[in-house]
Inverse folding.
């Protein structure tokens, strides 16, 4: 499981 | 895109539109915290700077522009057009107690020490507490108009739905964002007391008023 920013979210 | 994410976004949009329409139709911003609305405008501004650097989808770009546009329109209505109706005496929460610690935390705990990433992190942390001036104002006056409670319910529901979206994405995409999750949990918890009052009072047709 990778942690990081979910860039497509608002 | 999953159902929780979509309904979360739509709930957020509904909240923003309800507030704009409430102020516009009643020609009054009585009972609304201008400070919370300034904080939300700041949240969207610092989060959506990636509009200039990356394109994700038409949906993503349109929603960001709508959120930012509505946030500034709301601030304009409160502090300019209907300023005479703004209840500044009751909107006395000290926002520097939120903005300064949140700014410090976003510099300390972020995914990447770069200006855009720190501003994004700042917006996530700030959003989680931006409603506090509004909740403080309601606790001070002891009541809220029913339409204002619908606004708050939609706004609280949005982040709760995002929590389910993140659980979904963790299971089906194996991906999670700890900064957003922790801030999202804090944000949702802040609404719990209000959710209780909304269900036990407003949904039963009573006005939201707090015991003295």
């Amino acid at each position: 499981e990778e942690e990081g920013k979910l860039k497509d979210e608002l | 895109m999953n159902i929780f994410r979509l309904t979360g976004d739509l709930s957020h949009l509904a909240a923003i539109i309800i507030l704009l329409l409430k102020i516009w139709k009643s020609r009054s911003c009585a009972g609304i915290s201008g400070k919370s609305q300034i904080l939300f405008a700041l949240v969207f501004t610092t989060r959506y700077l990636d509009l200039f650097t990356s394109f994700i989808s038409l949906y993503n770009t349109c929603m960001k522009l709508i959120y930012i546009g509505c946030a500034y329109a709301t601030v304009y209505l409160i502090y300019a057009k209907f300023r005479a109706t703004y209840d500044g005496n009751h909107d006395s929460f000290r926002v520097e107690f939120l903005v300064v610690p949140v700014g410090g935390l976003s510099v300390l705990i972020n995914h990447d020490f770069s200006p855009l990433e720190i501003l994004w992190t700042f917006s996530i942390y700030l959003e989680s507490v931006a409603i506090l001036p509004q909740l403080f104002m309601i606790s001070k006056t002891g009541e809220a108009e029913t339409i204002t409670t619908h606004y708050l319910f939609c706004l609280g529901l949005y982040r709760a739905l995002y929590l389910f979206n993140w659980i979904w994405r963790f299971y089906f995409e194996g991906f999670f964002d700890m900064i957003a999750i922790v801030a999202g949990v804090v944000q949702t918890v802040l609404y719990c007391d209000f959710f209780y009052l909304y269900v036990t009072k407003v949904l039963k047709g009573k006005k939201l008023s707090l015991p003295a």
Remarks:
- The radius of gyration of chain A is 8 Å.
- Chain A has no helices and one strand.
- The mean pLDDT of chain A is 86.
